[in-house]
């Protein structure tokens, strides 16, 4: 079993920013209430990604906030990260589980009913669903699920869910009504003038919506 983790406010790093900026934003956002961090940089090679993962691990040391690496199980392992987040075309979640072991946090992106039905609860600790709304951060994110689509997706699997894509302080409370355990954001934090205050407001909005 992985260590307990809290999906309430999950910061996914912005691949358009250098690691120095990502480190500063992450430190501030965690101080403001971020509960999970994912290093996501699809274009980075292994060595660069490992260095960035180690830099983020140092920022998160002692905070209790887990570090998840996007796509790269090998980098997650080499960095001693807490887990990995895989997509539908990455290595399967079961392979991630076999490689990283029972204590690792394994996240999977799923959206269609077929993908939801195929989720193996023994291999997957949480599912990322989205995009909730239009996003410019990921070009191939697909059509927005909105409230009804997110609510429907939540009913298709017993695995814990987090919503991603186009989530802001304005719609975070709406997302909370769908059944997801948390919100995952890139630009709402990476582009905030004060990431600490923005994290605080995002979390407050989600928790208000959750009731
Ligand atoms: N996966 C689905 S949408 C997305 C990812 C990584 C990007 C979300 O970025 P933003 O800026 O929070 O809309
Ligand atoms: Mg991926």
Report what the structure shows.
- This protein has 211 residues and is an alpha/beta fold.
- It has a single domain, classed as TIM Barrel (Alpha-Beta Barrel).
- Helices cover 38% and strands 16% of the residues.
- It is globular and about 40 Å long.
- The mean pLDDT is 97.
- The structure holds 4-methyl-5-hydroxyethylthiazole phosphate (TZP) and magnesium ion (MG).
- The site of 4-methyl-5-hydroxyethylthiazole phosphate has 15 residues, from helix 8.
- One of its GO terms (molecular function) is magnesium ion binding.
- Its cofactor is Mg(2+).
- It holds the Pfam family TMP-TENI.
List keywords for this structure.
211 residues; alpha/beta; TIM Barrel; 8-stranded parallel barrel; 8 strands; binds 4-methyl-5-hydroxyethylthiazole phosphate; thiamine biosynthesis; thiamine-phosphate diphosphorylase activity
Number of helices: 9
SSE string: EHEHEHEHEHEHEHEHH
Question: In the CATH hierarchy, what is the architecture at level 2?
Answer: Alpha-Beta Barrel
| CATH first level | Alpha Beta
Write down the oligomeric state: single chain
Ligand list: 4-methyl-5-hydroxyethylthiazole phosphate, magnesium ion
Overall outline: globular
Q: Summarize model confidence as the mean pLDDT.
A: 97
Please tell me the total number of domains. 1
Q: Sheet with the most strands?
A: 8 strands, parallel, barrel
Helix content: 25-40%
Strand content: 15-25%
């Amino acid at each position: 079993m992985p260590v307990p983790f809290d999906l309430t406010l999950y910061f996914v790093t912005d691949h358009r920013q250098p690691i120095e900026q990502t480190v500063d934003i992450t430190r501030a956002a965690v101080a403001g209430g971020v509960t999970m961090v994912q290093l996501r940089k699809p274009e980075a090679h292994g060595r660069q990604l490992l260095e960035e993962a180690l830099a983020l691990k140092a920022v998160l040391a002692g905070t209790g906030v887990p570090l998840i690496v996007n796509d790269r199980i090998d980098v997650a392992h080499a960095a001693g990260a807490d887990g990995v987040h895989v997509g539908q075309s990455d290595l399967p979640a079961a392979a991630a589980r076999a490689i990283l072991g029972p204590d690792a946090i394994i996240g999977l992106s799923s959206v269609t009913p077929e993908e939801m039905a195929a989720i193996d609860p023994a291999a997957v600790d949480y599912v990322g669903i989205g995009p909730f709304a239009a996003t410019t951060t990921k070009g191939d994110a697909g059509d927005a699920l909105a409230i009804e689509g997110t609510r429907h997706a939540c009913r298709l699997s017993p695995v814990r869910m987090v919503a991603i894509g186009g989530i802001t302080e304005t719609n975070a409370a709406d997302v909370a009504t769908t059944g997801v355990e948390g919100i995952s954001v890139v630009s709402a934090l990476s582009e905030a003038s004060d990431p600490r205050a923005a994290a605080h407001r995002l979390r407050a909005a989600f928790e208000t919506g959750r009731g």
